[in-house]
Structures are given as structure tokens and as C-alpha cells.
Amino acid sequence: MTAPKLLVIQPDESDPIGPFGDWLTEAGAELDIRLLPGQALPSALGEYAGVVCLGGGMGANDDAAHPWLADVRKLLSKAVGARIPTLAICLGSQLLAAALGGAVAEGDQGPEVGPGLVSKKDAAWTDPLFADLPLMQDVLQFHNDAITRLPAGAELLASSPRYPNQAFRFDRCAYGVQFHIETTPEIVLDWARQSPEMAELTRPDALTPENLAKVHADITETWRPFAHRFVRLVSGDLAPAAERQRTLPMA
Asked: For the Glutamine amidotransferase domain, which residue ranges apply (predicted)?
């Protein structure tokens, strides 16, 4: 059987695919990683069975400084239109939301930084990727901006008290997660060094190497099977979400 090929869009050198890439490949996927803007995006998606878009330090609408972001949004929209399974992480989720008509802005509750929990919403219990996750999931947060409005028709899958739009699905197989599930303690410590003003907003012991090691062990336990399910979805071994039932108003 041919390994399903995934296009991995990496908008920022500081946020590689990390362990999440290992989980994808151990489940049988082949990764084509494009580090932007140095490596060009493909002009078409015909050779890819799935798309993953990672995070970065720029804003989802920061086209003035990063004009290639428009191409990322266009490609994500094309993947969704072709019903190619797509998973977008942090900045990636914001780019996906913006590409589909949602809204992204600086978070009005301030940055969300450090280890945290998100909780499943009703739609998650019947979702092919989210159904088997625990009610509360360990994640890593590190963002200023937030998705302030989901695209029309999107299903909310996970929330947190500060920012409700933590995970969503659009149509049957396009997913965005505001949080990080691909990091290592070293990557997070590097972000903290680069953005000390954000790092100091979390509790003092949250970003120690010891605590981050424990948190990432919990993230692995939860999200490694999720990565495996995504490869099954990409491969056609796992059915995508059911079509939404459109009901007419009562007469």
C-alpha cells in the first residue's frame, strides 16, 4: 500500500512539526514539509492525500509584512473545497478560519500562554477525530490573536474559558485547533526566551523544563492517537464526519 502523502505547511522556522510529525509517519504517512517563504507552496494538491498547517509568530492577516500568507489561505481554501483532510494548528487554525470567512483579531482577554486544558463540546462526541479524546485535553497555548468568529457552518469541537473557539471542524474533514500539540519542551522554552513579555503572563512554575516535560508526556498520551486517527482519515480507513442535516423551519 502506498503511504498517504501529506503537505505540511510550516509558516515559521520556530514552529516545526516536531513529535506530531513522528506520530504521523509512524502511522504510515509521508510528509512533504514546506518551510515558508523560502520553499514554495505547490501549485496544485493532486498528489496529496492531506494537508497540515503549523503555527508561527505572525498574524493570520499580516499580509503587509508576509505577503505569502494570502497564498496559504488560498491553498487551505482549495483543500477544503476539494474535501482533502486538513489539520491546521494555532496560526494555521487562524489562517483556515480567515480563509473560510471567519474572523481573527488580537485576543481581548490578553495572550493565552502555557500548559492548559480545553474541553470537548457536544459536536466532538460524534466527530471521527475528537470522539475518542477525553472530556478535558492537555494542550500547550502560546498565542496573542484568537478566532473571534468561526466560519459560517463550522462546528465547535473544543473550548476554554478565556477563548471559546479552541477547535472546530468545517464541512466533513477540515479541522482547526487554536492550541499546540506538536511542541517539545525545548521549543516552548525557546518561545519563552524570544517573547519574555508573554512568558511572564503565566504562573511562575508553568514553563520550567520539569513541568514542560510532564505536560508534554500528557500531550503525547492524548494527541498521539489523534495523529494516528488523522492518518486513518487521510487514508480512507476512517470515515469523515457525516453530512450536516439541514432542516427546514416548521411551518
From this structure: 52-185
Active-site residues: which are they?
90, 180, 182
Of residues 172, 2, 181, the one with CA closest to residue 90: 181
What are the pLDDT digits (tens) for 139-178?
999 999 999 999 999 999 999 999 999 999 999 999 999 9
Q: Report the C-alpha gap between 17 and 88 in whole angstroms.
A: 11
> Do 92 and 115 meet the contact criterion of CB atoms below 8 Å apart?
no
Strand partners, 31: 6
Q: Which residues contact 60 (CB under 8 A, 6 or more apart)?
A: 69, 73, 91, 94, 95, 97, 98, 104, 145
Q: Residue 247 carries which side chain, given as an amino acid letter?
A: T
Looking up cell 460524534 gives: 126
Residues 6+ apart with CB under 8 A from 237: none
Roughly how many angstroms between the first and final C-alpha of the chain, as a whole number? 52
SS3 of 21, please?
helix
pTM of the full predicted structure?
0.96
